[in-house]
Specification:
The complex is a heterodimer.
Chain A lengths: L1 H5 L5 H17 L2 H14 L4 H5 L1 H4 L3 H10 L5 H11 L1 H14 L4 H6 L6 H8 L6 H30 L11 H13 L3 H16 L7 H34 L1
Helix pairs in contact in A: 2-11, 3-6, 3-11, 6-7, 7-14, 8-10, 13-14
Chain B lengths: L2 H25 L7 H7 L2 H15 L9 H17 L2 H18 L1
Helix pairs in contact in B: 4-5
The chains are: A mainly alpha, B mainly alpha.
Chain lengths: 247, 105
């Protein structure tokens, strides 16, 4: 434990909190423009601003919040919830990956911890496999609460600034640009590209499906296409391996 | 959307978000997801976010809601995101394209 020496002069808990914040800050920076865009979208939303703002406290998931707030004008309750459910499916993956770390944790933390499980927190905590349970819990909560407070602050700033920006600036386009950028940054392999292209194309063809149902039709088609492309790619790789090892 | 409908929607989205994060931790601890499910879940992000982008551009008015300037801004943002791997850069480039075109046209 090389870290033990470094932490000798101060209480271990405080040292872990400091380490958590130091690790958390760099990952916050790319989320700032997203938070500002969400704040502006709240001022544009068909929802009352206070209700749209409360998604920070109730939902705390940037993409699901932005979708809820910006779809409110055209979508029904069912579409909003179904879209959020699909967007949130990646959290199921995070939760599956972290669940072994939660097994030996106190019951209260198993209930409270998941609320904070945003992408950044997953990135920070899933790699700290060597940390003992209590220290990991402190690290997780320190970074999680830090993200919760700073996210809410950034969105609030965006809301205040956004309401004073004239509509001719067309900031209503920013959420779509944001989502397009997120798609591209999330693409790590060819099946991912297949999923994105199919998702967008099918949604475009299904724009006339009532209640924004095109999002779900597009998303489901994209996932299936991505999955099939992944299976095909794996099979191709498996066929290639024996040849290259024999040659 | 009235306040009651909005509150109901926000609470529902909140519950579903929490459930997706807590489900496996609180209720199904120690039972790993089947490999096929994990594999499919990997493509949820790109599929749903790209569909959402298209839907937001249309703005609930079908294909008629798609504006040239918006599409151009998004195409530029996609190129910048792909080349620079940077979300802030993509947002700035996309908005700059939008403003430039609105000013020119």
């Amino acid at each position: 434990m090389p870290d033990a020496d470094r932490f000798r002069d101060e209480p271990v808990g405080a040292a872990i909190t400091r380490a958590a914040l130091r690790a958390a800050i760099p990952l916050l920076i790319p989320a700032i423009p997203f938070g500002l865009v969400l704040g502006v979208a709240i001022t544009d939303s068909a929802m009352p601003a206070a209700v749209a703002w409360s998604t920070n406290l109730v939902v705390f998931a940037g993409a699901a919040q932005l979708a809820t707030v910006s779809l409110a004008a055209t979508a029904t309750w069912l579409t909003l919830v179904a879209t959020a459910a699909v967007i949130n499916l990646r959290h199921v993956m995070y939760s599956a990956a972290l669940s072994p770390r939660f097994n030996d944790q106190p019951r209260w933390f198993r209930w409270v911890g998941p609320f904070f499980l945003i992408d950044q927190l997953f990135a920070l905590t899933s790699v700290r496999t060597e940390m003992p349970g209590p220290e990991w819990r402190r690290f997780y909560l320190s970074a999680g609460i830090f993200y919760f407070v700073s996210w809410t602050t950034v969105v609030t700033v965006g809301l205040v600034v956004g309401s004073s920006i004239p509509t001719e600036w067309r900031l209503d386009v920013a959420p779509a640009i944001m989502f397009a950028g997120l798609v591209v940054l999330g693409l790590t392999n060819r099946p991912g590209i297949v999923a994105a292209v199919v998702g967008a194309t099918v949604c475009l063809l299904a724009l006339d499906v009532p209640n924004n149902g095109g999002i779900l039709v597009g998303a489901v088609s994209g996932v299936i296409a991505g999955y099939l492309a992944d299976v095909a790619e794996t099979r191709r790789a498996e066929q290639r391996t024996p040849e290259s090892s024999s040659g | 959307m009235n306040a009651f409908a909005a509150i109901t929607a926000v609470l529902s989205v909140g519950m579903i978000t929490y459930a997706s994060r807590a489900g496996l931790i609180v209720f199904l601890a120690d039972r790993p997801l089947p490999l096929n499910i994990t594999r499919a879940l990997r493509y949820v992000g790109p599929a749903v976010l790209s569909a959402l982008t298209v839907n937001l551009v249309a703005g609930g008015q079908g294909i008629d809601g798609v504006e040239f300037v918006e599409v151009a801004a998004i195409v530029v943002a996609i190129v910048v995101a792909a080349v620079a791997r940077n979300l802030i850069g993509a947002l700035v480039a996309g908005m700059a394209t939008l403003w430039l075109l609105l000013w020119l046209l």
